[in-house]
Amino acid sequence: MDKFTTLTGVAAPLPIVNVDTDMIIPKQFLKTIERTGLGKGLFFEMRFDEAGVEKPEFVLNQQAYRKAQILVAGNNFGCGSSREHAPWALLDYGIRCVISTSFADIFYNNCFKNGILPIVVSPEDLEKLLDDAGRGSNATLTIDLPAQEIRGPDGGTVKFEIDAFRKHCLLNGLDDIGLTLEKADKITNYETKLAEVQPWA
Which of 45, 59, 150, 151 has the smallest CB count inside 10 Å? Predict the structure, then answer.
């Protein structure tokens, strides 16, 4: 998993409440267990019409936001079914951070396991950040994880809270496998000692 320290990138505004995981990645894209290639299905029904033509009004289809790395979204983002494909699709598209006033628990946890930083802010701070994100190509935010701070294009800052263990994992690029490998020496020692124990007669 890639480390997350400081990210400066374009922020796309998506002020829609209750964006569920089926909206993030529709069911027809769930046939794969590969984490790559899902970016093309991200927000598919909002991005494309029935003929597969881009809807120009959708934010990620607008030139200023096509390479957005940050999403500023409405309340209760990631609700609905517990599909890990949702953070996979966001990450494959290039989104490394989602900011909202609240997230569904399973989606929130899955983000951390896949190198995406979900940030919870107050409604007042979200309004400020949506305003920043509405500036098109000038909608650049800096997410400073070590300082737990979001810096806007005009120099304004928003502080955020994050669990210390999850922060450690993101800063060091540790998913569940990485956490296990940190204890590789202890695992090897245990297995060696276990092999030396005589079985019961």
Answer: 45
